[in-house]
UniProtKB/TrEMBL annotation:
One Pfam family recorded for the sequence: ABC1
Protein name: Ubiquinone biosynthesis protein
Species: Nonomuraea polychroma
UniProt entry tagged with the keyword Transmembrane: yes
Domain ABC1 atypical kinase-like: from-to ranges: 194-429
């Protein structure tokens, strides 16, 4: 066989494989990946001869005599349908056993090989740290269940030390967990609250290239002075003092070089670890570790982008009022890795005189409550390290990496919650709480109302410990299966952090009394004559166009009813998605009926005796029965392919996937 003949046979084989792939996918009516379809057609081409030879022999086809034209046509159709049926069976089996996307493709495997090796090294390092601190059994879900407080304290200390040794991402994770009193016991919250992310500063030789690259030139071109010794350091970035050529004193916050790659790797590990613990341990499922990990990943990614912090700074400054000052960012100089902001003159708030403490605490509480309840943009981490006492005697806010945002409906529900707490109204508190958090289907509202009533009776008296109040409130939320949304959890976190700060500023500060006073002032603002007049004006302006059209519409309805022409039209399946779903369902039913009918007819013809003999040992009825059997199999496979694919597609079209 010469080379040209071999090339022609090879080209014909490739063309046959492509035609088989196209025919199989067209008959199944479902999109498959190119690689998967081609492999199925290739396997079918290889199996064609072993499968078809016994079939043709069983039909009595020999080379000794030429079969009739009808028989030849029937055999040709039967052979073609058998060849197409093989890749269809393979595709349906693959769809049922190995759905698209369940296994990575070859290119994806090659791209992720280096990342897998790097992640494996980091996994082993984290595992060694966990085992070193005695956390190995808990990662496997086999740790002992601790009931006594001393055991919980020991475990919490081990967890804190392991997170501290794990690096920046795990330190941040511990800091965020220390604010979730709704999901962690008090022993863990207290211990994780001691985590600090103070680290050694990065050398100037590594910081200067970041500044030069993001600022588009040498540091001296932008700044008249730049202190190379950091003012403060943290795990994500460090701050330097500088002066612009225009004379303003500024603080320049620079992200540590290479920290984004480390954090990305650690976040991937945190997600995988959370998924494993939630699947294998009871405590992981009760805490909802998957959701916690996703929320943490979102928060830390935002903290890595200093442009987000600059926007947060401007948003909080617009709501801070005159009692609290926020530094102004310089947007033209802010990048993803650099934040330039005006330097606030002052000293740490812990250095404030004792006589100024009550005033500063009252200003800070009023500012944060107004941000939460009125403006909807608030500083979510008001601990003493993020506060300054300015030279003019007011407070200054720092570090806007963690800022919460609330929509109008949540703010309104929180306002009603606070006002009901002020009135000690258990019913109002329960209704407002169930507006803030997702309402479970089987909640016992009467029991929740009684629990909140007892809670208010215990804690809403002067002189009570408000930190214990937050802890008990979180316990009630957890006991009744109420999951707190992330934005509301940020509110409780900010308030819990604020309580500790207020105690530092003014020991014995009456948080409950001041919050009640704020609620009373805010309620007075809402019911003031000018506020009520303004609200009524807006509502009437919205209602006037409707009221003007209402008499004409009522007159037309009455006239139609009087003359017997009143009717109502109801459009079923008006939504295109509903029509598409019903159409697909009817198609499946029709294909099932046709396939079953073809199968029954095939069985009847194959079992029928007599009929003209078209081949040796095969009658025309039997040949038609074999063809109907293939048609029945094709229709059934099409239905199965749609059934296996529909739960993942939900009626939507999908792109080809391998």
């Amino acid at each position: 066989m010469d080379l040209l003949t071999q090339l022609f046979i090879g080209l014909l084989a490739v063309l046959t494989i492509i035609l088989l792939a196209m025919a199989a996918q067209r008959l199944l009516g479902v999109r498959f990946g190119v690689v998967r379809t081609f492999v199925a057609a290739l396997v079918a081409f290889g199996l064609a001869q072993p499968v078809l030879t016994p079939l043709v022999t069983a039909l009595g086809v020999t080379g000794e005599e030429r079969p009739p034209d009808v028989a030849a046509l029937g055999i040709l159709l039967l052979v073609l349908m058998c060849m197409v049926l093989i890749p269809m069976v393979l595709l349906v089996l693959a769809e049922a056993l190995i759905p698209p996307g369940s296994l990575p493709g070859p290119l994806e495997l090659l791209r992720s090989a280096r990342g897998r090796l790097s992640r494996a090294r980091r996994y082993s390092q984290i595992t060694r740290i966990a085992i070193k601190h005695g956390l190995g059994p808990y990662l496997r879900g086999r740790g002992e269940r601790l009931e006594d407080r001393s055991g919980k304290v020991r475990l919490a200390r081990s967890l804190r030390e392991a997170l501290d040794e794990g690096g920046v991402t795990f330190v941040k994770l511990g800091q965020i967990l220390s604010t979730r009193r709704d999901v962690l016991p008090a022993e863990f919250v207290d211990e994780l609250g001691r985590l600090q992310d103070q680290v050694a500063p990065a050398p100037w030789e590594r910081i200067e290239p970041v500044l030069a690259e993001d600022l588009g030139g040498p540091v001296e071109r932008v700044f008249a002075e730049f202190d190379r010794t950091p003012l403060a350091t943290a795990s994500i970035g460090q701050a330097h003092t500088a002066r612009l050529h225009t004379g303003e004193s500024v603080v320049v916050k620079v992200r540590r070089p290479g920290i984004d790659a480390v954090v990305a790797k650690d976040l991937d590990i945190v997600r995988r670890l959370a998924a494993t613990l939630e699947a294998r341990t009871r405590w992981g499922r009760s805490l909802g570790l998957r959701d916690l990990a996703e929320g943490f990943a979102t928060a830390i990614r935002e903290e890595l982008d200093f442009r987000i912090e600059a926007a947060n700074m401007a948003a909080v400054a617009a709501t801070a009022g005159g009692e609290v000052t926020c530094p102004d960012p310089f947007p033209a100089l802010c990048t993803e890795r650099i934040l330039v902001m005006r330097r606030l003159p002052g000293k740490p708030v812990t250095a404030a005189a004792a006589e100024d403490g009550p005033r500063l605490a009252r200003d800070l509480l009023g500012c944060l409550l107004r941000q939460i309840l009125v403006d909807g943009v608030f500083h979510a981490d008001p601990h003493p390290g993020n506060l300054m006492l300015l030279d003019d005697g007011t407070l200054g806010l720092l570090d806007f990496g963690s800022v919460g945002r609330l929509d109008a409906s949540v703010r309104s529900a929180l306002q009603r919650f606070l006002l009901a707490m002020n009135r000690q109204d258990p019913l109002g508190v329960t209704d407002a709480l169930l507006e803030v958090v997702p309402r479970p289907e089987d909640i016992d509202e009467a029991a929740l109302e009684r629990a909140l009533g007892q809670f208010m009776a215990r804690h809403l008296a002067p002189g009570m410990d408000s930190m214990q109040m937050f802890t008990d409130l979180f316990k009630i939320v957890s006991a009744y299966g109420l999951s707190i949304p992330p934005e509301v959890a940020a509110v409780f976190r900010a308030l819990a952090t604020l309580e500790g700060t207020l105690v530092r500023l003014s020991p014995g500060f009456d948080l409950i009394g001041e919050a009640r006073a704020f609620a009373g002032r805010h309620l007075a603002e809402q019911v003031a004559p000018h506020t009520v007049k303004e609200s009524l004006t807006h509502e009437l302006a919205a209602l006037v166009p409707m009221l003007r059209r209402l008499p004409r519409r009522v007159e037309r309805i009455a006239s139609a009813a009087e003359h017997g022409r009143f009717g109502m039209n109801v459009r079923l399946l008006a939504d295109e998605r509903d029509r598409r779903y019903v159409t697909g369902l009817l198609h499946q039913v029709l294909l099932t009926v046709l396939g079953a009918t073809a199968g029954l007819m095939a069985v009847m013809l194959l079992g029928a005796g007599g009929g003209p003999q078209v081949l040796t040992g095969t009658s025309l009825y039997q040949l038609i029965g074999y063809n109907l059997l293939m048609i029945s199999a094709i229709l059934v496979l099409r239905v199965l392919a749609l059934i296996f694919r529909r739960p993942r597609d939900s009626g939507e079209e999908r792109p080809y996937r391998s």
